[in-house]
Description:
Blueprint: H1 3-13, H2 17-28, E1 33-34, H3 35-42, H4 46-58, E2 62-67, E3 81-86, H5 100-114, H6 117-129, H7 132-136, H8 139-145, E4 150-153, E5 156-159, H9 165-170, H10 172-186, E6 191-195, E7 204-208
Antiparallel strand pairs: 1-3, 2-3, 4-5, 5-7, 6-7
Helix pairs in contact: 2-3, 2-4, 3-4, 6-10
Amino acid sequence: MTAEDSAFAVVGVLGDPVRRRLYRHVASAPGEVGRDAAAEAVGVSRSLAAHHLDKLVEAGLLEVSFRRLSGRAGPGAGRPAKLYRRAEGEHAVSVPPRSYDAAGRMLAEVVEKAGLDRELQAAARAAGAGDPDAASGELVDVLESRGYQPFWDGGTLRLRNCPFHALADEFPALVCGMNLALLEGMADEEWRAVMDPCPGGCCVSLSKNNGG
């Protein structure tokens, strides 16, 4: 099976609406998710949720771990629960095939070698400020639509996913600086964006300036 065939197979797995809802719930959760919680979140039975969650694991979209949720150990502690989390791999499909990732890497390399970090950040900040959805909508909803998967951690809005993950791994200072500038541009005076990495997620977090 080619890489393209594999990507199509993954998309096929997500064709089922229940699986899509389960994947979105688990992928956006800040921690691991058990079968009971996943079933309740999407409104299906535990057995149906377990079936679809395991199909997502088989497709490489989710990963599994086992842990006793009670925190107890030894006799009488019960069996470890099966917990799910988003898999680290990426899956992209383009019809016909495109190579935007390759172009992105080449552009990032040129910008980094030329020392154009400030120019890139200025362009990103302007793009964020000019985003019509950010200007007219609720920022949390806009971030969700852009793939950041925001969630509240106390008074801090953390971002479970980095939409620029592959480039950020290869050019961390360049891409994370660009991302911070982009989110600064998108945020209005009500919000403050700072470099504050979320483990396994985005390098930026946001908080309300009024502390609310």
